[in-house]
Each structure stands twice: as structure tokens, then as C-alpha cells.
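Listing S7. Sequence submitted for prediction.
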Amino acid sequence: MLGPKSIHAKEAHRENFIGTGWFDEIDLTDKLTENWRDFNKAMIPLYLEQNPEKSKISAGLACGFLWTVSKGIQSGDIVLCPDGEGNYYVGEVIGNYEYQKGATLPHRRTVHWYEKTIARNEMSDALRNSAGSIGTVSNISKYAQEIETLLSGSCIASIISTDETIEDASEFALEKHLEDFLVANWKSTELGKHYDIYEEEGEIVGQQYLSDTGPIDILAISKDKKEILIVELKKGRVSDVVVGQIQRYMGYVKDELAEANQLVRGVIIGFDDDIKIRRALSVAQNIDFYTYKIQFKLEKK
């Protein structure tokens, strides 16, 4: 996303670049480490110094986005950028990081934009939700086949109907939509009574929050701001492996994001469990387990 609500999209398209705007006065050429963790470690304190009203979570988000656009995206990668009018510019990144002091979004990458754009209403629901992420950047690589199909002008329905790896259509749909459904209906859930998905300037940014061991499905904070909650979603039967996974996320949040007075809790949500995960959770007192139920009903009118 090129500026809040894509306000710089047309300029970026006209001048062939993507970019970000944090640390406007700093040339990052010698600061872009190979590992985003090292970049965040160095830049988060500076971000908090310049923005004392922000939290460590906000700082981690901003620095992670900045590194991803400036360094993490590779030359040859394809980017989609909303134009603010219901369409997406599509282009190939063809240049490395450049700093243009005083310019709009001064931390830039040169892009060759394609002539064809993609309309938001042409996308599948899953791609539309992922591409509509409020954050500066979201990885949508798993929709590469659909994006190629849209660029070629073919019907996206053929993607699902010809995919021989999908044995259960309902399971396929569930995997695509479970996380987005939970986020959209968060306030009506049991968790929503006590926690809010993390927001930045009124917009949800706690979905797929980047950590040094992988993206956190949902990052939430208690209404009294005393607890940070990590939510891990599993679409089928849950194994005990996920306990170690969520503990790694919790360790990252405890060490890097939580304030001194904040506790960290975890929640695993899955369709079913087994004896192994029950044993593992019995000695993990700060992790809760929830199951979800799906109901499908037809009503004759």
C-alpha cells in the first residue's frame, strides 16, 4: 500500500516506484542488514525515540515493513498495489534500494508497471482479503496462480476446478477463509469479550504479524492493555507440535514487544485435538485451547 489509503499510488505509478516513508531523514543504504531481525533490533529504539507515543508493537511493525520493502522484496518479484479506486497496479521490481531525501516515500525501489491492472471485484474472496490487508505490505505468494490467471484474462473458477490436489472442497474453502472469518467476527467471539486485535490508528494490523520465527496469525491485546495474546489457528486436528510453535511466538513477544508490566498468553484454535496435545497443554498454564464448529443450513423460502 503506497501511503495511507493509497494516497501516493498514482504518483508512484507515474514515476515507476514503490516506497515507504518512515525515517524520512535517514539514508538506510548502510543499515539494511541481510536479516530483518538485526535491522529491527537496531532501528526499533530509534523509532521509539522519534515516536514516544507509540508502543513496541507499533515499532516492530513499522520497522519490519520498512525492511521488507527496502530489502526483503527481491528484484524480479511481482507486486500488487491498490490504486485507491478498486483496482490494483501490477508491476515487477527491477531495482535495489534507493534513498531520495525530501521525496514522497523516500525509501524506494524502481518498478516496471504492467499495462494491465487487476480489479478487486475480479479476485477470489481469499485473495481479496489478503490483498486488502491494512498493513503496508502483505505476502500473497500463495495466490500466484490466481494472479497469473487474472493477468491473462482467464476465468479464476478454473483454478479450483482443475486443481487435482484438492480432495475436499469444504476443507479447501475453510483453510482459505478461517482466519479472515475469525478476524471479521472477532467481537462476537469469546475472545473478543476480553481482547482486541491489535490496531494502528484505528485499523487492524495484528493479523499475520511478523516475528523472528514466522508470522503470528493474530496478535491481540487485552482491553485493559495488561496482556498480549497470541492466537494460532489450525484448520484440522491439532498435534502437540503446535504447542512449541506458539511458545516460540510467545517468547518473541515477551522479549521484543511486551512492556515491563504486560503478560503474554497464547490461544490455539483447532477443529479437534488428541491426547498428545492435552498432555502438552496440561503443563502450559498460559496457553488455552479452543475448538471451532461449522454449521451449514438451508432454509426454503
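Caption to Listing S7: primary sequence and predicted C-alpha cells for the chain studied. The chain has nine helices and 14 strands. Residues 4-161 form one domain.
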